[in-house]
Specification:
The protein is 19% helix and 20% strand. By secondary structure, the protein is α/β, with parallel strands linked by helices. It has an eight-stranded parallel barrel with strand order 15-16-19-20-21-22-23-24. The chain has a six-stranded mixed beta sheet with strand order 2-6-5-9-14-12, with no helix packed on it. Strands 25-26-27-32-29-30 form a six-stranded antiparallel beta sheet, with helices on one face. The termini are far apart.
């Protein structure tokens, strides 16, 4: 957590320092061996490094000089120091911002490799490396220790027992994006003391919802220890989303119910163990593109004071300033081997020690900027792909940053999946009748082969979504024509500029039954399209229960009812519908193909692997594909002719699925194509979600009633 504190006095001159035993330069961080602790920290251009130890109250007890230096790493060993001990570093060296050097021994620094962090940041001038009001000129002589949290020595042992990774295949994966705190903070079935914590997410009531929903993986918004920006603290707000990391090895302490003296590490591990036992994978949203220290006027809490040149990308012509393609003030310097080592060491730690199953990389294009342009052959990718641990976990890229040429959807290498922003935009535009025909929609429904088919990638490379944490919730998406971010204190200037009309009546809640029915239908259309498309679906946590943020589409600073799930107001009809479509996806192999459709006849059956057809039952031809007024699209997925095989080499077969998508303004009747067998049973209808599966069936030449702005799914059993 972060708060504001009065300015502390200047740090006194060091009196009696002890000299640490030599110890070892590896591994980096604080490593307890049962008798004492080895401390090792990288600081290339430092002149001296001091290890400061604290008691459980955070009071300084002793200081050790690390006099040993090996390969740019300062290190030392201290006897009797064990788990729970608090520590930090002071580093001496030149303070010359114009040369990119920002050493200041008055500032207590967190260990970049700290496994836990205890205490709060107290935002104020004490954390600044320069004197306030001088535009980062003269060096500050104020001691920052009273305003700083402490690093913690941690015992890594944990009783994992029979913990096993679910190892869900990409084709079977359904991701559920959630915030650790927001998911359980208001859940009455979770004990009050556990709500909003790792233990709360591990509680049976929380896990039961996820299992009953049918998702296979939770994607946790950032849990690396982070900082709240001064501009937020000044307004009484916090960095709720957590996209300002300062500890890449430490689980965020504010989500711990047991304490922050290392207990947060055990609690996180216990959460992973519980989720694994329920068959759920854990994917972390990680932020290795920048840190929470901000631009040249930001606080000095760790990296900046240890080695500003190595950790950050500085402007070549003026190293006082930071090269910024993240919009946060700085970018990590992935060209530096020690920074790359820190990132990969962090990733390996979370896999090997914390047992997580994968990562979603925030603004991943920034990590691929070897020099200026985004480079698919960058050292970052080389290291990941060659690493025996990291190459085997799920890797997901947010394939853009805010720099020139930063939009890289479809351009990440094999083994990577990507948040498919094109899917989001195309599907939204189709259902609000603002797309130029249906040609682009067809690509999105079938795994975006135009983006991912080349160079050996498969449909699962496309992470399909229509909503995520950054933007409107699903309910708000169809209920608001404009954002309402007034509570963020930025004059409603933050967040996405334009939602465009969904023609769903007045904004916000409505008493009009017709308006609410149409909104509900559009929500079902959008989420069904995600779940029925080839690729890997991702749901925004809470969309299945009708969560609203009252039109706020940028809740990054709202740690309150705006962002927390309201478990007292569950849209049970929506929840039942989402469960039903997920069950259909999991039961039908043709919805989870490993290969792209070819559009060709398969195995001499006389039928193609996919058929696109019009409401009159006839196959699409070029004029219809290029007709920008076309609003209806039918497809049949041939479940009997799937070119996939299981782990034993047996060919996979299943039912065939017909999907009818219609965003026109009038109801129509859709002819069932001839030559595809019979009968076809209706299993999903977004306009009539309560109709039991299989109660209505159709044969060739029959006509299926399809309401305006709706989606219908029919199934033909495998013969």
């Amino acid at each position: 957590m972060t708060s504001v504190a009065p300015e502390p006095p200047a740090i006194p001159d060091a009196a009696s320092h002890q000299v640490a035993w030599p110890g070892s330069d590896a591994p980096l961080g604080a490593t307890w061996d049962g008798e004492g602790t080895n401390f090792a920290v990288f600081a290339e251009m430092a002149e001296a490094v001091e290890l400061v130890l604290y008691d459980e109250r955070g009071e300084e007890t002793e200081t050790y000089d690390l006099v040993e230096r090996t390969d740019l790493v300062w290190h030392g060993y201290v006897e009797t120091v064990g788990p729970g001990r608090l520590y930090g570093y002071r580093v001496r060296g030149p303070y010359a911002p114009e040369h990119g050097l920002r050493y200041n021994h008055n500032k207590l620094l967190l260990d970049p490799y700290a496994l836990a962090i205890s205490g709060e940041f107290h935002m104020g001038s004490a954390l600044l490396g320069y004197r306030p009001g001088t535009d980062d000129g003269p060096m500050s002589d104020v001691d920052s220790a009273p305003a700083m949290p402490r690093s913690v020595v941690v015992d890594r042992a944990f009783p994992w027992g029979e913990d096993r990774r679910p190892n869900t295949s990409w084709t079977d994966t359904i991701i559920y994006e959630l915030h650790v705190k927001g998911f359980t903070k208001r859940n009455p079935e979770v004990p009050k003391g556990l709500r909003g914590t790792y233990a709360g997410l591990a509680h049976p009531a929380a896990i039961e919802h996820l299992v009953n929903l049918g998702v296979t993986a939770v994607e946790l918004m950032p849990v690396h220890h982070f900082i709240d920006g001064a501009h937020l603290v000044d307004q009484g707000l916090v960095n709720y989303w957590g996209y300002d990391s300062v500890g890449y090895f430490a689980p965020e302490g504010r989500y711990s119910s047991a304490g922050t003296g290392g207990q947060q590490v055990r609690e996180f591990k216990a959460m992973v163990r519980a989720l694994h036992a329920a068959g759920l994978e854990v994917i972390l949203d990680v932020v290795y593109n920048h840190t929470g220290e901000g631009n040249h006027l930001g606080p000095t809490v760790s990296f900046r004071g240890l080695d500003n040149h190595a950790y950050y990308r500085l402007m070549d012509q003026n190293p006082r300033f930071y090269f910024d393609v993240t919009g946060t003030g700085n970018s990590l310097n992935v060209r530096n081997p020690h920074t790359l080592q820190m990132i990969t060491d962090s990733l390996r730690y979370w896999v090997t020690e914390m047992h997580v199953d994968g990562f979603r990389f925030d603004l991943a294009a920034a990590l691929a900027r070897q020099f200026y342009e985004v480079d698919r052959l960058s050292a970052f990718f080389d290291i990941i792909h060659q690493d025996p641990v990291l190459s085997r976990v799920k890797l997901v890229a947010e394939p853009w940053d805010v720099g020139d040429g930063g939009y890289q959807v479809g351009n990440f290498p094999v083994r990577w999946a990507e948040w498919n922003g094109g899917f989001r935009d195309s599907v939204r535009d189709y259902w609000r009748a603002q797309s130029p025909g249906v040609r682009d929609l067809a690509y999105r429904l079938t795994g975006s082969s135009d983006l991912y088919q080349g160079e050996g990638r498969q449909p699962w490379a496309s992470i399909n979504f229509v909503t995520a944490h950054d933007g409107f919730t699903l309910r708000d998406l169809v209920s608001y024509n404009a954002k309402h971010n007034e509570a963020n204190g930025e004059g409603n200037r933050d967040g996405t500029e334009d939602n465009r009309s969904w023609n769903c009546g007045a904004e916000g809640d409505s008493d009009d039954a017709a308006v609410n029915e149409l909104r509900g239908r559009q929500r079902r259309n959008l989420i069904a399209t995600v779940l029925l498309s080839q690729g890997c679906p991702m749901l925004l946590g809470g969309d299945e229960i009708g969560r609203t943020q009252s039109g706020n589409n940028n809740g990054y600073c709202q740690d309150n009812d705006i962002s927390w799930f309201d478990w007292e107001q569950v849209d049970q009809d929506m929840l039942t519908f989402v469960q039903r479509v997920i069950d259909l996806r999991r039961a039908q192999p043709v919805l989870r193909r490993r290969r792209f459709f070819s559009g060709q006849e398969i195995y001499g059956s006389g039928r193609k692997d996919i058929l696109w057809f019009l409401p009159n039952g006839r196959e699409f031809t070029d004029p219809q594909w290029f007709n920008e007024a076309q609003r209806s699209l039918g497809m049949i997925l041939n479940g009997e002719e799937i070119p996939d095989r299981d782990s034993r080499g047996q060919r996979i077969t299943g039912d065939s699925i017909m999907v009818l998508l219609h965003t026109g303004d009038v109801d129509i009747k859709w002819a069932v194509p001839a030559g595809w067998g019979e009968p076809w049973e209706r299993v999903v209808d977004t306009a009539n979600p309560g109709v039991p599966e299989g109660t209505v069936s159709y044969r060739p030449s029959d006509r299926v009633p399809v309401k305006a702005h709706s989606l219908v799914v029919l199934r033909r059993a495998h013969s």
